[in-house]
Design goal:
Isoleucyl-tRNA Synthetase, Domain 1, Rossmann fold, RNA-binding, five-stranded parallel sheet, alpha/beta, Methionyl-trna Synthetase, domain 2, 19 helices
Length: about 575
RNA sequence: GGUUCGGUAGCUCAGCUGGUUAGAGCGCAUGACUCAUAAUCAUGAGGUCGGGAGUUCAAGUCUCCCCCGAACCA
């Protein structure tokens, strides 16, 4: 059911890899901004579908499972639940959080492979690869270790040397051995793999990228860089058992590929579609995914926006489009994408082993999700890498959330409770202070919405804060506590306006700090229907109505302290525990 | 190494197609207020916009060189 002016917006955030809980940087660079954006657009009344999933295939998952002494399946089941829980803890409002190991993705991946082969974009090629005689199998890149031919580092991985950082081909390693068994009984043998002929799509992709004028500079320049260097044909299969089987169009296993599966980079982006199908089944409407993805079945009016870290831009702007466009089928292509830089830990890298940085699960043990959500949105790594520091975090939370917003709600609701029986007062006429406040809203709310539309998250947070701050300024101008002494009705106007502002502040806070917003709105008894930012409610007849929207006489309850301040000794303790000051 | 992006008040950052006295938040100082989580509000101090050269009537904003930082290179 669509209403006039309602848009259909598909949002995806880069799929977190299954291998372990993500840290705050991962959260800040794709899942969180995607969530904030999805929430905003839902509040505007649009039809939003926000899809994410765990990316489960590939060598790292196999190795991690092996290290944990578990089967890959069981390992992924466990890790998926952990990541799902962490997402819920952070109130990430996925419509569905799927799994790339699901049957939907397998079927879609195989479908794309069949179609691409029929289009002449996939072919079998013979290549040389390291075979482990003792393990009885070919070894994919990271399963081979040996001495780096460039720097003589003795524990170089097959794909890359951790010492000198150079990319390697496993067959070039000196004294190679199997990372699976440690066996040195290995040799180079010929084997066959499927190759995606990206080079054939070079011109088509370039044309598509060049017409995508709205992309941010970061994304465009990365895509064009790849195109300038020339798209290379890449193997899309690997010698693993954990992955999507390589099939013939009739569903049987392709001859010679019994021990091979599609490589993770080929099947992972397909999971955007796969997870949508999972959603569709889970919600009892098995074909609903099609009108989000098939432009011949209703997806032509969908706006598709992808969120990702900068490392993923090439896959989203070049690799995946090769699959989609190359299929010549009417699949939905991305319209807008938002790429982020990294959140660093005091300027350095997050590191599990060195105990540097906070991971999603640990963060929630320390403080509520809203605190992190606010800081990471207000300081999103948009223009460049952004450093997380405890000191900056503390300053931001205490000032923005506790002092500016929390204290505002607290002061006005408590004053109302003590002087006006906890009811929205009805007396008094508005004056200069209220007119000033209206003019603030007239300029600031449209700006706020524009920042969100542009996906400028720092600016959106800053504008949100500025509106909260204007509320405090308003109270200084209205000074109901002074007027109360001589003219109770005049004070009533200030209290009524202040309460309405608190409600508005809660409403605009929802995308970033949903839980605190809910506490405010619940305390003020705002019905669900009135918590939106829809154009027919906000500003349609001017902004003055927002200051007298609550029913007169409505009973309100001062909420508990919304945000507890972060104390210096907490900062000290956390710096100790999680590292800091690089 | 190549490419890209950055280097603006103590800190974190805004500054669109070049044009009045370079802005915000935090921090700091002073004042005001007392409804409030010692919160809030006002005012103020602080910058030769990384360095150098050039284009222009005019450059943080364009060009070139250099220094520093970050990222990407399948």
């Amino acid at each position: 059911m669509t209403t006039p002016g309602q848009r259909r917006i598909l949002v995806t955030s880069a799929l977190p890899y299954i291998n372990g809980v993500k840290h705050l940087g991962n959260l800040a660079g794709s899942m969180l901004p995607a969530d904030v954006y999805a929430r905003f657009q839902r509040l505007r009344g649009h039809d939003v579908l926000y899809i994410c999933a765990t990316d489960e295939h590939g060598t790292p998952a196999e190795l991690a499972a092996q290290a944990a002494g578990m089967s890959v399946r069981a390992y992924c089941d466990e890790q998926h639940e952990i990541q799902k829980k962490a997402g819920e803890g952070f109130e990430l409002s996925y419509d569905y959080f799927g799994r790339s190991s699901g049957e939907e993705n397998a079927r879609l991946t195989q479908h794309f492979a069949h179609v691409l082969e029929a289009e002449g974009l996939i072919e079998e090629r013979v290549m040389e690869q390291v075979y482990s005689i003792d393990d009885g199998r070919f070894l994919p890149d990271r399963y081979v270790e040996g001495t780096c031919p460039h720097c003589d580092f003795e524990k170089a991985r097959g794909d890359q040397c951790d010492n000198c950082g150079r990319l390697l081909d496993p067959v070039d390693l000196i004294d190679p051995y199997s990372a699976v068994s440690g066996s040195k009984n290995v040799e180079v043998r010929e084997t066959r793999h499927l190759f995606l002929l990206q080079s054939k799509m070079q011109d088509t992709i370039r044309q598509w990228v060049e017409q995508s004028k709205d992309w941010p500079q970061l994304a465009r320049s990365i895509a064009l860089k790849w195109l300038d260097e020339g798209l290379r044909d890449r193997a899309i299969t690997r010698d693993l058992s954990w992955g999507v089987p390589v099939t013939n169009p009739d569903g049987s296993i392709r001859e010679g590929f019994e021990k091979k599966v599609f490589y993770v980079w080929f099947d992972a982006p397909v999971e955007y579609i796969g997870a949508t199908e999972e959603w569709s089944k889970a919600t009892g409407q098995p074909d609903a995914w099609r009108n989000w993805w098939r432009t011949d079945e209703g997806a032509d009016n969908v706006e598709y926006i992808q969120f990702m870290g900068k490392d993923n831009v090439a896959f989203h702007t070049v690799s995946f489009p090769v699959t989609i466009i190359g299929s010549k089928e009417p699949w939905k292509l991305v319209d807008q994408l938002k790429a982020f830089n990294w959140v660093t830990w005091y300027g350095g890298k997050f590191s599990t082993s060195n105990k540097r940085g906070v991971f999603m699960d640990q963060a929630l043990d320390l403080l509520p999700a809203d605190y992190w959500r606010w800081y990471l949105t207000a300081n999103a790594p948009e223009g460049s890498d952004a450093a997380f520091t405890w000191e900056g975090f503390q300053a931001s939370i205490n000032s923005d959330l506790a002092n500016v917003l929390g204290n505002f709600v607290n002061r006005i609701t408590k004053y109302c409770a003590s002087k006006f029986d906890g009811q929205v007062p009805s007396a008094g006429e508005t004056g200069e202070a209220e007119a000033w406040m209206v003019s603030e809203l007239e300029t600031r709310l449209p700006q706020l919405f524009e920042h969100y539309e542009n996906m400028d998250f720092r600016k959106a947070a800053a504008e949100t804060r500025a509106i909260w701050a204007a509320g405090n300024e308003y109270l200084t101008k209205a000074e109901p506590w002074v007027k109360y002494k001589s003219d109770v009705d005049a004070a009533a106007v200030g209290v009524r306006t202040g309460l309405n502002l608190a409600a508005l502040f809660g409403i605009i806070a929802q995308p970033i700090i949903p839980k605190a917003a809910r506490m405010i709105l619940d305390a003020l008894g705002i019905p669900e229907d009135n918590r939106t930012l829809r154009a027919d409610r906000i500003g349609r007849d001017g902004y003055g109505g927002l200051l007298d929207a609550l029913p007169h006489g409505l009973a309100i309850t001062p909420p508990d302290v919304l945000f507890r301040k972060i104390e210096d000794d907490q900062v000290t303790a956390w710096t100790e525990q999680f590292g800091g000051e690089s």
